[in-house]
């Protein structure tokens, strides 16, 4: 029995090392959808117009913090009621106010490095969300 114990220990040691390889995360068969494809929501479509797409990127990087939380009355994208009176003023007036600052909103949304064209594209994208 005493000779058997070291052999048993050594055998268990070697067998323990055999199970370290990870199994595949999923088994995929040709023609079948994976769970991730079935459960994934449809991706939000990017705007077709390149200026609107650029405006969306600028919004995400610079404006979303205040507008998504409606900070100090900032209208949320897609909120038709909040944008109705603003859209009635016209795009040029909204762009001018966004560049110069208006009612607590800092000029160019607080990023002086933005060009007037970038601000205009962002305003155009935001108003496009309520159409």
From TrEMBL:
Name the PROSITE patterns on file: CYTC, PROKAR_LIPOPROTEIN
Q: Which UniProt keywords apply?
A: Electron transport, Heme, Iron, Metal-binding, Transport
The Cytochrome c domain is annotated at 50-130
* SUPFAM superfamilies associated with the record: Cytochrome c
- Name the record gives this protein: Cytochrome c-555, membrane-bound
- Do you know which InterPro entries this protein is assigned to? Cyt_c-like_dom (IPR009056), Cyt_c-like_dom_sf (IPR036909), Cyt_CIE (IPR002323)
* Pfam families attached to this UniProt entry: Cytochrome_CBB3
Q: Give the Gene Ontology MF terms in alphabetical order.
A: electron transfer activity; heme binding; iron ion binding
Organism of this sequence = Chlorobium luteolum (strain DSM 273 / BCRC 81028 / 2530) (Pelodictyon luteolum)
């Amino acid at each position: 029995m005493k000779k058997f114990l070291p052999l048993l220990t050594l055998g268990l040691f070697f067998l323990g090392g055999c199970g370290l390889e990870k199994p595949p995360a999923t088994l995929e068969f040709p023609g079948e959808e994976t769970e991730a494809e079935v459960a994934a929501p449809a991706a939000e479509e990017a705007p077709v117009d390149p200026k609107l797409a650029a405006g969306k990127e600028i919004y995400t990087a610079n404006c979303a913090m205040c507008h998504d939380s409606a900070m100090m009355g900032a209208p949320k994208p897609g909120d038709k009621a909040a944008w109705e009176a603003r859209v009635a003023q016209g795009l040029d007036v909204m762009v001018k106010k966004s560049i110069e600052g208006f009612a607590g909103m800092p000029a160019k949304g607080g990023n002086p490095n933005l060009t007037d064209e970038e601000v205009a594209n962002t305003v155009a994208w935001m108003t496009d969300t309520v159409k």
